[in-house]
């Protein structure tokens, strides 16, 4: 039986004040958990310590939005996996489409980050997803399969025992236009089938999240699908009551 997981991706948003206000809304509501759902928030790096301190003793877990594949040394501006662990992060989002597109992150680099993150003890949340052009030209499945396969090739299928995959169609991110529950379920089933081709047990156990305009209005229908185990939530995770409602939508 897979546990449900809802992850808030705060992206490059927030100030000390706004984050404290957001947590004042979240912490009391989540202090004893919600429906047995695992809840993770991923603030920008400078606020990791503040959030770690504020969520102490509460059922919210800390994550980060990116990490270097290097351990330490002369990499100005980079953050190592060990540093994230030291700041009490347990999860890290990898390969978000904004990083693939704006920072030119390749499947190979993301796979290296995945391995480095796991070696430090972090749980990677590997983001995959097709663009609108790729969906329109019929290559959505192949695109996502290639993104997952890059990690399978470098890390091996058993590495997915300690990882999460988030399917986020690029055209649905921040657009208010979520994939339909059927479109999302179809891609999730395809990802699980791809992994099952390597190891059926790992495929059955891995948490697959949907991301892309998840809101309190569409979460319940998405989360009801057989292969959707929760969500990676951007915009709506900046609003405490919307995020709590999304967590409550897990059946
Ligand atoms: P969104 O972002 O919920 O604002 O669409 C999701 C994400 O980018 O992870």
UniProtKB/TrEMBL annotation:
Family the UniProt entry places it in: Belongs to the triosephosphate isomerase family.
InterPro entries, A to Z: Aldolase_TIM, TIM_sf, TrioseP_Isoase_bac/euk, Triosephosphate_isomerase, Triosephosphate_isomerase_AS
Record's keyword annotation contains Ligase: no
EC number: 5.3.1.1
Subunit structure: Homodimer.
Protein name: triose-phosphate isomerase
PROSITE patterns: TIM_1, TIM_2
Molecular function terms, GO-annotated: triose-phosphate isomerase activity
UniProt GO cellular component terms: cytosol
Gene3D superfamilies registered for this protein in UniProt: Aldolase class I
GO BP: any one term: glyceraldehyde-3-phosphate biosynthetic process
Alphabetic keyword roster: Cytoplasm, Gluconeogenesis, Glycolysis, Isomerase
UniProt keyword Cytoplasm present: yes
